[in-house]
Amino acid sequence: MNPPPNRVVIAVFKPGNRRRVDNYCAAAMAAGWDVTVLLADGVCWAKQWTLPEGVDVVSLRADERRIPDVWLYNAAVERVPGGVLRRAARLPGPIGKACKLAGRAHRRLSGIMRRRMFWPLYGVRRPHTVRRLAMRHVDRLDLGSATRLVIGDATAVPFGWRIAQRHRELEVTTAFDTGLLTATVPAETAA
User: Fold this and answer.
1) Residue 143: Cβ within 10 Å count
2) Domain 7-65+127-190 class in CATH
3) pTM of this prediction exceeds 0.90
4) By CB count within 10 A, which of 33, 36, 103, 130 is most buried?
5) Domain edges within the chain
């Protein structure tokens, strides 16, 4: 009888560790581990992240974009005024030119507002907000069959802490240590 495969779950809530996560996923799959990645890729990710083939991905993109703070900011500051100015820029004559210039100024100012107002306020609460969203997907992660949970960044630490409290048998770590990925073989199958 074959032993169940080792499973590792990686929680990544910020895009900064992409290369480390990709390398760890590749090393884990090469060592025979099943890999599941929990991505909170909703607000601060400029583009969608494609992980190596064979990695099971659980995305929180849609959930995070439904948070009232996020969609209200996007609608009130960026999307509605930007859409109105883009449509008005199509008008002929000096009104269209003025709206085109106003659209450029709006894009620049909304970017400044995002960096200097939205992120300082939302960024403080984001780890706990995303933790609550991730806890809704714990069943999809199937942590009962996982061997290890790797916390990919500081934003995912509240999630890892909560999981460590609930699943004491699970190894929760922040280390992307590929030396720990050696396949474990039970003693009765080794003989």
Assistant:
1) 19
2) alpha beta
3) no
4) 130
5) 7-65+127-190, 68-125
